[in-house]
């Protein structure tokens, strides 16, 4: 069990964040995801080379260098093929999304759910805002503000959902798939900022969306480096950001959100699922194909309607 002790749960309440080292299971959670992404990148790079989009397939490069080169040549919008959620805009039947079994299994990691259970109880819904982020060296991204491959400006996750979810008690679980360091752009938080109000969010002058400079509190951001397998839990009002990757490697993380089952997600157009239920275990979603199908259905529906209002700030 990876249940949090009382002191950790209290620290989360008081500070609005909690770092838990060595939470993920290397064999169950990390290695299958890495293997799934290596195969996906191989498939995509081979395909894009055969379609003359890339100068080579770069099969001789390791995963980090190969993805960086692909993004350098194609631009960061190709990363949507590796992302586990949909964008907000221009959704068609062909909008890319990755819905592999290892990604789904990570969202259901028993060790992550044990920790989440310590914070919100045993009826756990996996919220539809979940992302794979692979931050490549800053020189490889033309638009350094892309939330998935580059810098993430200061924000509160609560602004990324509709107001109907303000009381849903959504907790963010940020998981390190490789070592996140200050050099490669680890997560940074303002401790205690969850006790303040939801600040105004919007599009920013240099790109992206977040809290405008004049509204950011003067308190310093604290960098939270965490080794592969570690996790960071955030209150939905904790202000956080991450800076450019100044290293020559990648920073790879997955962030998921969980809330007590039965509350509004604030993203009614995207599907979530029951990740754990003590009362009704038969309602847990355990089949990755069924999960993938919920996203394909949502995509098909969104492709046929006007763009709905997703959230307050167009935050991913
Ligand atoms: O991974 C990052 O750099 C930002 C993550 C984030 O904003 C989140 O997980 O809510
Ligand atoms: Fe966030």
Keywords:
alpha+beta, binds fe (ii) ion, Jelly Rolls, 6 helices, globular, binds 2-oxoglutaric acid, 316 residues, six-stranded antiparallel β-sheet
Give an account of the 3D structure.
- Helix content is 26%, strand content 19%.
- The protein has 316 residues and is an alpha+beta fold.
- It has a single domain (6-303), classed as q2cbj1_9rhob like domain (Jelly Rolls), CATH 2.60.120.620.
- The strands form 3 sheets. Strands 1-9-4-11-2-12 form a 6-stranded antiparallel β-sheet. It has a 4-stranded antiparallel β-sheet with strand order 3-10-5-8, with no helix packed on it.
- Helix 2 (26-50) packs across helix 3.
- The longest helix is centred in the first third of the chain and has 25 residues, at 26-50.
- It starts with 5 loop residues before the first helix and ends in a 13-residue tail after the last helix.
- The mean pLDDT is 95.
């Amino acid at each position: 069990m990876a249940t949090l002790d009382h002191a950790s749960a209290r620290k989360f309440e008081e500070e609005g964040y909690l770092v838990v080292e060595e939470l993920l299971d290397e064999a169950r959670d990390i290695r299958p995801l890495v293997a799934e992404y290596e195969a996906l990148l191989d498939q995509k790079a081979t395909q894009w080379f055969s379609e003359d989009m890339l100068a080579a397939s770069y099969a001789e490069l390791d995963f980090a260098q190969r993805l960086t080169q692909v993004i350098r040549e194609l631009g960061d919008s190709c990363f949507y093929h590796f992302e586990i959620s949909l964008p907000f805009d221009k959704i068609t039947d062909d909008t890319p999304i990755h819905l592999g079994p290892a990604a789904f299994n990570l969202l259901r990691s028993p060790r992550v759910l044990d920790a989440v259970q310590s914070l919100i109880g045993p009826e756990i819904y996996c919220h539809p805002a979940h992302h794979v982020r692979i931050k490549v060296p800053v020189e490889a991204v033309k638009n350094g503000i892309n939330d998935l491959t580059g810098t993430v400006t200061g924000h509160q996750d609560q602004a990324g959902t509709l107001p109907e979810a303000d009381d849903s008690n959504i907790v963010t679980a940020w998981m390190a798939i490789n070592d996140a360091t200050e050099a490669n752009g680890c997560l940074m938080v303002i401790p205690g900022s969850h006790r303040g109000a939801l600040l105004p969010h919007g599009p920013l002058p240099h790109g992206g969306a977040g809290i405008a400079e004049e509204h950011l509190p003067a308190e310093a951001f604290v960098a939270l480096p965490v080794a592969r397998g570690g996790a960071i839990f955030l209150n939905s009002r904790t202000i956080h950001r991450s800076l450019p990757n100044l290293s020559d490697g990648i920073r790879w993380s997955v962030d998921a959100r969980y809330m007590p089952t039965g509350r509004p997600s604030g993203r009614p157009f995207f599907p979530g699922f029951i990740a754990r239920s003590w009362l009704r275990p038969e309602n847990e979603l355990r089949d990755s194909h069924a999960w993938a199908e919920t996203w394909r259905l949502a995509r098909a529906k969104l492709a046929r309607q006007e763009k709905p209002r997703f959230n307050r700030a167009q935050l991913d």
